[in-house]
Specification:
single chain; alpha+beta; five-stranded mixed sheet; 32 strands; globular; binds phenylalanine; binds zinc ion
């Protein structure tokens, strides 16, 4: 653990390494208590920098020997690094021997044990927990790895690249031993190293890619889980095909392996040729996984596979450039999922989901204590910067580039990027330059320095638009302003380049031709306006009536838009907009306006007929897809409503939203009955967009029907929900019915929850759902919080397993604001206790969960004071990890602001 070493690392302090490590030959004698590592490196000076000692990173490992060219040398430890002073002028061999203890490694960074096997996690700085090294991404080496272990316990021995040798060794005291030797021909940074030694089985598939080369794909899981690997394998095959077709990027490896592990801090990891995955993003069968899980697997399998080029072939020069690989790869996995979805509405559904995540996760981050640019300027703990900003906002920045250069232009840019930088460690600037250079006539190329403010400035820009129709001249002028609010360390901001996709709609719903002043004729009915000043004006001509503007179509930039549209305009967009995203957005805005009004004046919410009619029309619409309807009829989350307010009163938000849900349930009762009955899916399970959309809508309807029934004291719908829960043919419907019962606080929920636990007690990922469902149930009289506290003592609960810890702690503290933010501060006490406990086990995970307090300073009293006290208690913990310290210290700095 790195407690007490809280130094700030700055981007501007980057210097090239003093030495290069060209090759690494690693030998592991794997043992849970004491693993021996022999690390032989070919090292040479970097002649570009002044002569200096070699300083190697190392953490929580025991050094036993240091040899240079086979002779012992003197060395010292300084600031946690191993320093060797007198080294030969020319290339030399450096041999390090050290030991580590995988079994005690509860942080899950470096080499650790899980379910009786060995696994590694090296990004960002985990390799130094395995052996001494220049553990930084700009040092790229060719690895040869020999693994030795007990044969019966660890029959499968894997590392990156190709298997070159394997065989039996002399038996040890605990029985037969064996070894395997792997060689990875691609030079790579240490964060992409991986090994696995465990008792696993694999699903295998041979494929031949376009170029005619044969490849072996493998998905390794524990015995018994093999029948849950089909979807992951299909997703992998689809990823290979897609990257070749869309970006001409082929699979460059003879063998590509995915390994699932039950204890994992993140979603998955793109180690070269040996991806290691959280089981959550591999294992699925219809009985245990939901439609959402199936979609998650497809996108994460794609994401890690796409890293093979964007991240591995070209990697990051330093960790400040993290978005170079993550923003780009998220963009690629989003595009992949959209292309897989197929139809225009299914694509739009995916886009809406992505924007919803961005707004729910990234916007609050950008407005809170941890606000940072897509390319941060400083950090204490790099693990704290695997954020929604670096990932999701980073993806939006890449998407804006594509919007500015066009889809083909962007693909050309990617090709140029690889022809320039393949095999290198580069920067976000290098990427942006390549995309611009491949499209010299584009707006991106013309405005590149200004566009790059997106990388440098934190905070979500606000865009405010007002339209004015002038009947005599038949013109419509849009005045658009952009403002960027100050964020920590960035008081003044510069104007962004903002691509604003838009259209104009007539009162009858017709899309109007768009002709700007000075143009000879209209240019279609949709176009992208490029904003690059604090204020811009656009005048459209030849308009006979006042249009309704449809702005920021497809969410063409990550901004908050104030379009000042009246309800009547929003209703027009909801009915007629050809852009499905804005159509959805109009519905959300109508709901949001009503929620905000109710929260602000504290009066009980009373839904108006116009809104109810609009929602009914939408639900009953003859052409819209079920998946789209489900999104449109789902109210903005409490977190998103909170985003719009300052100060935030979570209880008032909850009350308003609950009231609105109930009224919507009651007012549309017959329509929900119809929706439920008309969207049953017959036949075998398939996670395709059409069937999953139907299931989603039917499940939403069922929840609404149960809410309404409970309020009326009716038992029919809860009874039907229980039957459906019992008889469901797949997890989506089973969990949907269980959710309907729990969320409506039906009496039958208890019985159903018990039954669910009994049915799935040996399925860890399903038990996670069981915990999460109880912790995310809408709060009612403090019951949900009390239950969550009680669940801490459940025999199946453990803080050591990240998925399980998240299923209860994150679910309650992050996804259930009304249960968490209590006037008696008990939620904050619960939070502080868990963070303190978890800090000693897994600081990375503790720091992630600590993030719920990011926006504490915007809370209304008494919440604000209670939150401050809890933060101070965590900050005062002796030996607090630098991970959690960075988060709580930054949060507490908000106090003065
Ligand atoms: N690089 C991984 C991904 O995004 C995420 C990750 C980061 C996993 C750090 C583990 C540790 O694909
Ligand atoms: Zn990634």
């Amino acid at each position: 653990m790195r407690e007490g070493t809280a130094t700030l690392i700055r981007r501007e302090d980057y210097t090239a390494p003093a030495y290069w490590i060209k090759t690494v030959d690693l030998t592991f004698d794997l043992d849970p208590i004491k693993t021996l590592v022999i690390n032989r490196m070919q090292v040479e000076r970097n002649t570009g920098v002044p002569v200096q000692p070699l300083k190697l990173h190392g953490e929580d490992i025991m050094l036993t020997r240091v040899l240079v060219n086979n002779e012992s040398v003197s060395f010292r430890h300084e600031d946690g690094m191993l320093v060797i002073d007198n080294l030969p002028e020319g290339p030399f061999q450096l041999e390090i021997r050290n030991t580590c203890c995988p079994e005690k490694n509860t942080q899950l960074s470096g080499l650790y044990t899980s379910g009786g096997g060995f696994f590694t996690q090296c990004e960002a700085e985990g390799f130094r927990r395995i052996t001494y090294f220049l553990d930084r991404p700009d040092v790229m080496a060719v690895y040869t790895v020999t693994l030795r272990a007990a044969k019966t316990q660890y029959p499968v021995l894997l590392s990156n690249g190709n298997l070159v040798e394997q065989g039996d060794m002399m038996a040890g005291v605990y029985g037969p031993r064996h070894f395997a030797k792997w060689h990875d021909p691609f030079p790579k940074p240490s964060y992409l190293f991986a090994l696995v030694a465990a008792d696993l089985v694999a699903r295998e598939q041979h494929i031949r890619t376009r170029s005619g080369k044969d490849h072996l794909l493998q998905v390794y899981v524990r015995r018994g889980d093999l029948e849950k690997t089909e979807h992951a394998m299909n997703s992998l095959i689809a990823s290979v095909v897609w990257d070749e077709a869309r970006f001409k990027l082929p699979l460059d490896l003879e063998r590509f392996m995915i390994v699932a592990v039950g204890d994992f801090n993140m979603g998955a990891m793109e180690n070269k040729g040996l991806n290691i995955f959280n089981t959550k993003f591999v294992l699925a069968n219809p009985a245990t996984a939901t439609d959402v899980d199936y979609a998650g697997i497809e996108s994460v399998v794609g994401h890690e596979y796409f890293h093979n080029w964007t991240g591995n072939r070209i990697t990051c020069r330093d960790w400040f450039q993290l978005s170079l690989k993550e923003g780009l790869t998220v963009f690629r996995d989003q595009e992949f999922s959209m292309d897989m979805a197929g139809t225009a509405t299914a694509r739009a559904v995916k886009r809406i989901e992505d924007v919803r995540t961005l707004r729910q996760m990234q916007f609050p981050e950008d407005a809170g204590a941890m606000a940072h640019p897509v390319r941060p300027d400083s950090y204490v703990e790099i693990n704290n910067f695997y954020t929604a900003t670096v990932y999701e906002k980073g993806a939006e920045v890449v998407r804006m580039m594509q919007t500015l250069v066009g889809r083909e232009g962007f693909a050309r840019g990617i090709t140029l990027y690889f022809s320039r930088f393949d095999g290198q460690a580069v920067t976000c600037d290098d990427f942006a330059q390549a995309i611009a250079d491949a499209n010299p006539q584009s707006e991106l190329a013309k405005q590149l320095p200004q566009f790059k403010h997106w990388y440098a400035q934190a905070g979500t820009p606000r865009v405010s638009a007002r339209g004015r129709y002038d009947a005599p001249s038949r013109t419509y002028t849009l005045g658009i302003e952009q403002t960027a609010l100050p964020s920590p360390g960035q008081p003044v901001k510069q104007a962004y380049v903002i691509p604003l996709a838009m259209g104009l709609i007539g009162r009858d719903g017709q899309a109007l031709p768009l002709q700007l002043e000075g143009e000879a004729q209209p240019v279609g009915t949709e176009r992208v306006l490029v904003l690059n000043e604090a204020r811009s004006f656009f005048t459209f001509v030849n308009l006979d009536v006042e249009p309704v503007p449809s702005l920021l179509r497809g969410f063409s930039a990550p901004v908050v838009l104030a379009d000042h549209l009246a309800d009547a305009d929003l209703l027009t967009l909801l009915q007629h907009d050809t852009d499905p995203f804005n159509r959805w957005e109009a519905g959300q805005r109508l709901a949001l306006n009503r929620l905000l009004a109710a929260v602000k004046d504290g009066a009980p919410l009373q839904l108006d007929d116009a809104f109810i009619d609009a929602m009914r029309k939408l639900l009953r619409h003859p052409e819209l897809d079920a998946a789209f309807k489900e999104l449109a009829l789902t109210l903005p989350s409490e977190a998103y409503v909170a985003e719009q307010l300052n100060p935030v009163d979570p209880q008032r938000i909850h009350q308003a939203r609950e009231a609105m849900l109930l009224q919507l349930a009651q007012a549309l009762r017959d329509d929900w009955v119809w929706a439920f009955e008309a969207h049953q899916v017959k036949g075998g399970y398939s996670p395709d967009p059409v069937s999953s959309g139907r299931r989603a809508l039917a499940n939403l309807a069922l929840t609404m029907l149960c809410r309404d029934a409970i309020a009326r004291g009716d038992v029919v719908w809860p009874g039907r929900a229980y039957e459906r829960f019992k008889d469901a043919g797949n997890m989506t419907d089973r969990l949907g019915a269980l959710t309907a019962l729990t969320h409506s606080h039906a009496e039958l929920a208890e019985l159903a929850l018990q039954r669910f636990h009994t049915l799935f007690k040996s399925e860890a990922l399903v038990i996670d759902k069981w915990f999460a469902l109880q912790a995310t149930t809408p709060e009612k009289d403090g019951q949900v919080f009390a239950r969550a506290k009680h669940l801490l003592k459940h025999p199946d609960f453990s803080l050591k397993n990240p998925n399980r810890a998240r299923s209860l702690i994150a679910a309650l503290c992050m996804n259930n604001p009304a249960a968490f933010h209590r006037s008696d501060a008990a939620g904050y006490v619960f939070w502080a206790d868990r963070i303190i406990e978890l800090d000693g086990i897994n600081p990375q995970l503790a720091a992630r969960l600590a993030r719920v307090m990011d926006r504490w300073s915007k809370l209304a009293e008494p919440y604000r004071s209670g939150a401050a006290e809890a933060l101070k208690r965590v900050a005062a913990k002796p030996n607090l990890s630098s991970d959690v310290a960075e988060i709580v210290h930054r949060a507490l700095q908000q106090e003065s602001q």
